[in-house]
Amino acid sequence: MLSVNLAILIPFLAAILVPFLYAKVSRKHIGWFVLIVPIVLFVSLARYIPSVAGGETYLSTIAWIPSYGIHFTTYLDGLSIIFGLLITGIGSLVIIYSIYYLSAEESLGHFYIYLLLFMGAMLGVVFSDNLMVFYAFWELTSISSFLLIAFWYHRKRSRYGAKKALLTTVTGGIAMLTSFIMIYVMTGTMSIREIISTIDYGHALFIPAMLLLLLGAFTKSAQFPFHIWLPDAMEAPTPISAYLHSATMVKAGIYLVARFTPIFGSHESWFWLVSSVGIITLFWGSFNAVRQTDLKALLAYSTISQLGLIMTLFGIGSAALSMGAGEETVIYTQATFAALFHLVNHSTFKGALFMVIGIVNHGAGTRDIRRLGGLMSLMPISFTIALIGSFSMAGLPPFNGFLSKEMFFQAVVSVSQSGIFSLHVSKVLFPVVAWVGSVFTFIYCMIIVFKTFLGPYQPEKLDHEAHEAPAGMLISPIILAVLVVGIFFFPNVLGDYLLRPAMASILPSIELEGMIEPISAWHGFNPALWMTLGVIAVGTLMYLSIRRWKGIYSLLPENWTLDNLYNNSLIQMEKISNRITSFYMTGYLRSYSIYIFLFFIAAVGGTLLFTGAYAFDFAGDAPISVYEIVLVLVMVAAALAIPLAKSRVNAILLNGALGYSMALFFVVFRAPDLALTQLVVETVSTALFLLCFYFLPKWKKEETPRRTKRTNLVISIAVGIIFVLVALSVRGGKLFDTISGYFENAYELAGGKNIVNAILGDFRAFDTMLEVIVLFIGGLSVYTLIKLKSTKEEQNLEDQ
Amino acid sequence: MKINDVILQTVTKIVVFIILTMAVYLFVSGHNSPGGGFIGGLVLASALVLLFLAFDTETIMKRIPLDFKMVAAVGAFIAVATGAASLFLDIPFLSHAYSYFNLPVFGKTGLATVTIFELGVALGVVGVVVTIILSISEDV
Question: What residue of A is the nearest CA neighbor of B42?
Answer without folding.
Answer: A680
